[in-house]
Amino acid sequence: MKQVQGPASKSSQEQQESGTSLVSSSETPNCQTHIDRLKYILSKKQKTPPFQLSTRGRWSTWPAFASGQTVLQNHKPCCVPKERKSINKQALLTIPKPQYLEQLESYLRKELQSLDLTKKNSQELKLQPYREIFEFFIDNFKTYKPLLSAIKNEYEVTLAHQKEMIRALEPLKAMDTTVSEEYTQQILALQEKERAEINMLKQEKQHLLKFIDNMKEEKNSLEIQVEHLQKSLAEEYIRYLNEYHARKLLLANMNEMHNEQLGLTLHQVQDVKSEDVVKLTLALKIAQQDLTKAQVELNRMIADYGDVVPRRDFESLEKKYSDLLQEMKTQQKDFDQLHMEYDMLLEIHRETAEERNNVFIELQEVQRSCTPRPNWAKCSEVIPGGADRWSSLVEGKTSDQLVDMLLEEIGTGVLKERHVFLGWGKGDNVPVYLRYEGEVRNKKLSKKDVVTILKDVWREKIALEQQTGKRSSLPEFFLSYLQKKYGDAAAMEWSYTLYENMRLYQSNHVMSSFYDILTGKVGEERYHGQNQLISNLQKELAACDSSNTGSLTSEQFSMALREVFPLKKNDSIQELVDASRYKLDSAEDLISYRSLFNEDEEGNAEPFITMIRNQYESEKHEYLRELKSKLGDLIEVNADDLRTAFCAVDPDIDDQTLDIYIGLAYQVGKEQTDQDVLPVETALERLLAGDVRRVGPSPKEESKTDCEEGE
Fold it and tell me: Residue 461 in contact with residue 467, Cβ under 8 Å?
């Protein structure tokens, strides 16, 4: 340590040089007080004998000269002679320790021995005795107390800071351990994966090495065969060359023998006739040369062109080959067309057989449960309005529809006689618009009033959704609408009255559609989809009416229908045209299209709109029937299989519409459909409740159209 400069330092040096104690006489009373205090604490905690002071009653300096020399030795060891070092060591050994120092060391040893160092905080426990002894020094040495207190406080602050840092780093240590374990597991997994890949690559390497060895063996074998063939070819070439030379020699010999024979003949002629020898000899030589040339050329032609096909025959065969190739392509095309038609007919046959079986089953059910047809005319006697009203109600209705109508008439009378409704309670399973306990008064509304209120609910809801840009729940909006219009007290009376009327009048489209959406049987998008179709048809008909007369010819009306409904069959278009002309004579050609969209005061639409809605439902059923047929015998279906089936029955469907249909079937978001499995019947029921329509033409219709065009 560096020596502190100043008066205090000077006085301490003087005391050390004179051999007096470290504590001056003026400090003796204070030191005595602290000594007594230390004696009390040590005797109380350790039960040790009290401290004994020196004979003079002051602090002992042991050794007084050693500390100063030690400081000098620490600072300038090179300046101290070796003799003085040895003298200081001997002095230290000869001078005994002060009793106070020995008692402090004894106290420290006992404190340390009494500690349980096996605990987790053993280091903090071990530090406490040293802290207490250091506090005794600070209290006793008044001159150095500020400095020692500052040192102690700084150490305490540093220790506290280090503890805080350790406490803050403990979660990081745990997190580090967790992350280390996770990465260790990932490394092990990657090593395992790489080990499998390495084994696979090693196997592939062995396979490729075997393949290379086989290829080398095959190459050596082929090289041997090539060498053998080259030798055979050389031998054949030499043989044919020898034959060629032998043939030439044979021809030369033949020519020579022929010339000799001609020479003998000429000599005989010369003997018979006396002609010019010179002239005949010259002519003979020329004739012999020409004959030799002709013979050589003839032999060469025979040898070179003996195996050549005449050009005339080659062209004839080439033409015949081209004709046969063209005929084969035509027959292959016809075969492919017939194969496609066969597959289509086979599919139609399968579907027809399935329909036949279903119809047969329905026929058996009808035959088993059929009863004699009732005399519906008897109902006119009990229905309000008499026979005239009953005849107008039953026009064009089936027996099932007549039963529903009769039940509605009976229920109407019962509902009018009812004065109160019994509340359903306030349970969670009760719809929000029917949560009420006790009796609810019946408002006794007419059909007209109910239809007017329901239409107003739709208008308010659509306006709110267009304003906010969000789709709201119909049950909650229905209740808020009634509370806003009639007040909280009377809202339940109107709600129960409207609900019972909607449940009763299922033949009314406005009430039945609102009731189905309100109870969750069908989706709200189905209602908006039908209204959008009718709106598009109105706009198209108005666009075709350039003169704005409100009437169109049958041809114009049919073209407008095909423009709005391009996927409808000809029979469906004709049904709509016939429904639009139900009030016209057969001779009239103008159709008043505006009147087709009128409704009476009870919300009943014209037969034309009813036909559009019926065709919408039948087309949806047909579409889903094809989808079910494409799924085959599957009991459960996942999103990928359902998506594939949709693309098969409707190839022109776009991704956005397909995602909407898949979400409608699984009733979850797009990102959650990949792992879901759903029963086929449940998926089809949910699709039937929503707005599901065909986007493009059916593959069967396209095949039929192609076949008709080919014919």
Answer: no
How many residues are given for the chain?
711
CA 619 to CA 613: how far, in whole Å? 10
Name the token pair of 615: 């065709």
How many angstroms separate the CA atoms of 477 and 472, rounded?
A: 7
pLDDT in tens, 495-541: 999 898 888 888 888 888 899 988 988 888 888 888 888 899 888 88
Question: Cα–chain-centroid distance for residue 169?
Answer: 40
pTM over 0.70: no
* Phi and psi at residue 425, to the nearest 5°: 100, -175
Q: Are 663 and 669 in contact (CB under 8 A)?
A: yes
Structure letter (DSSP) for residue 377 = G
Q: Specify the 3-state DSSP secondary structure of 438.
A: coil
Report the C-alpha gap between 203 and 197 in whole angstroms.
10
Contact 408, 506 (CB under 8 A): yes
Distances from the Cα of 318 to the Cαs of 284, 314, 326, in angstroms? 49, 6, 12
Cα radius of gyration (the chain)? 60
- Distance CA(505)–CA(514), nearest Å, equals 11
Cα dist from 68 to 2, 13, 61, whole Å: 11, 8, 12
> Which of 26-30, 231-235, 576-580, 707-711 is predicted least confidently?
26-30
DSSP type of residue 62: T
Specify the 3-state DSSP secondary structure of 596.
helix
CA 117 – CA 123 distance, rounded (Å) = 8
Tokens 């057969």: give the residue. Answer: 586
- Regarding beta strands 551-553 and 590-592, do their DSSP bridges make them parallel or antiparallel, or are they unpaired? antiparallel
- Residue position matching structure tokens 């519409």: 657
Tokens matching residue 153: 């406080």
Q: HSE (CB half, 13 Å, CA atoms) of 478?
A: 21
